């Protein structure tokens, strides 16, 4: 019984302490009803129209060919294999090879994209050590016409601790466990944990880092941005200008808006699949971005037991 009574006595003392606290803070009744709006002290935008990103997709390709019975596939170095829009005819596609072969064997997703981050310092006179009065800090932008809606990205003061899960978009499963000596190949749809990019939790500095991805960008590139940079790709056309409005709202609904909008010109991203050409081509084929017969004759992915010259040379049939 004693052990049950002691906590309730402590709760009573704690409640008294809370009541006492609110009593001493209760000095200005007219401000207690409506409060004061938050103050946006500083806004720091960081904008990179050519942010690099690269991801190792070797295990994903190894697991892919394993499903077809090649348990000993060995990725090679190479110049990759990438489907791209023909610069002379936007209705046609061409295959692009990298100028410089990789020095490491494997299949690699590489590219550039527009990276944007907003870091916003917000204070509020009603914030206490126990609870911030700030409810929401956001960056909003108008979607291109004919749309009349606005998209809002929430900024966080979480020290980058919260995981925001997003599913992969490419059609080939990207969450793979590959152990060639023990012949373990297991893949499923990947869930990538997106982060705010905030550095310190609870310091009144709110941050959001994200990617502006061209609408036609490869889903491999978008997944790679989520996987390696932990940023969500927001669709935006190359060359367009987005105007970001920074706002802060407190718990009473008081709104503050940063006096100027922040423009960002969306860069032209780039994408290549580099390294093992057969691996890159199969990655395209199994994502329904190429016909598997396109892969016939491509060097790479040697299976000593079944395809000593390469899976795409010995096994895959051409047109
Ligand atoms: Ca307030
Ligand atoms: Ca912070």
Question: How much β-strand is present in the residues?
Answer: 35-45%
Query: What string, H for helix and E for strand, traces the elements in order?
Result: HHEHEEEEEEEEEEHEEEEEHH
Sheet with the most strands? 5 strands, mixed
How many β strands by DSSP? 16
Structural class: alpha+beta
Proportion of residues in helical segments = 10-25%
Radius of gyration from CA coordinates: 27 Å
* Overall spatial form: elongated
pLDDT < 50 runs, ≥5 residues:
1-32
The ligands bound in this entry are: calcium ion
* Mean pLDDT value: 88
Number of helices: 6
Distance separating the two termini: 84 Å
How would you describe this protein?
The protein has 6 helices and 16 strands. A hairpin with a 7-residue loop joins strand 5 (134-142) and strand 6. Helices cover 20% and strands 36% of the residues. The chain has a domain at 23-72 and 110-273. The relative contact order is 0.21. By secondary structure, it is of the alpha+beta class. It is elongated. The strands form 5 sheets. Strands 1, 4, 11, 12 and 16 form a 5-stranded mixed beta sheet that branches. Strands 5, 6, 13, 14 and 15 form a 5-stranded antiparallel beta sheet that branches. The site of one calcium ion (CA) has 9 residues, from loops. One calcium ion (CA) binds at residues 35-36, 38, 124, 126, 133, 250, 252, 254.
Secondary-structure blueprint:
Elements: H1 2-25, H2 29-34, E1 39-56, H3 58-66, E2 82-86, E3 89-96, E4 107-123, E5 134-142, E6 150-155, E7 164-167, E8 175-179, E9 184-188, E10 191-194, E11 205-213, H4 219-229, E12 233-235, E13 241-250, E14 255-257, E15 262-265, E16 270-275, H5 277-285, H6 311-314
Parallel strand pairs: 11-12
Antiparallel strand pairs: 1-4, 2-3, 4-11, 4-16, 5-6, 5-13, 7-10, 8-9, 13-14, 13-15
Helix pairs in contact: 3-5
The structure holds calcium ion (2 copies).
């Amino acid at each position: 019984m004693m052990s049950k009574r002691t906590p309730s006595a402590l709760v009573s003392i704690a409640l008294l302490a809370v009541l006492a606290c609110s009593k001493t803070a209760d000095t200005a009744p007219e401000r207690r009803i409506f409060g004061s709006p938050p103050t946006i002290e500083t806004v720091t935008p960081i904008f990179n129209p050519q942010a690099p990103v690269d991801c190792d997709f070797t295990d994903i390709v190894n697991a892919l060919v394993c499903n077809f019975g090649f348990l000993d596939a060995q990725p090679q170095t190479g110049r990759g294999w990438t489907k791209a829009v023909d610069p002379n005819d936007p209705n046609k596609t061409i295959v692009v090879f990298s100028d410089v072969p990789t020095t490491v064997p494997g299949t690699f997703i590489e590219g550039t994209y527009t990276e944007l981050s907003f870091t916003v310092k917000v204070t509020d006179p009603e914030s206490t050590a126990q609870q911030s009065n700030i409810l929401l800090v956001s960056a909003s932008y108008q979607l291109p016409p004919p749309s009349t809606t606005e998209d809002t990205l929430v900024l966080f003061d979480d020290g980058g601790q919260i995981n925001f899960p997003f599913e992969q978009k490419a059609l080939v499963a990207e969450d793979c466990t590959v152990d060639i000596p023990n012949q373990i190949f297991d893949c499923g749809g990947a869930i990538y944990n997106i982060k705010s990019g905030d550095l310190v939790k609870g310091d009144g500095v709110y941050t959001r880092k994200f990617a502006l991805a061209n609408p036609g960008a490869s889903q491999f590139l978008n997944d790679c941005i989520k996987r390696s940079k932990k940023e969500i790709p927001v669709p935006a056309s190359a060359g367009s200008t987005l105007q970001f409005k920074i706002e802060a709202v407190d718990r009473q609904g008081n709104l503050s808006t940063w006096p100027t909008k922040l423009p960002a010109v969306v860069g032209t991203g780039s994408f290549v699949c580099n390294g093992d050409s057969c691996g890159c081509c199969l990655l395209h084929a199994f994502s329904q971005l190429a016909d598997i017969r396109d892969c016939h004759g491509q060097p790479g992915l040697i299976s000593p037991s079944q395809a000593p010259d390469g899976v795409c040379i010995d096994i895959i049939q051409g047109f």
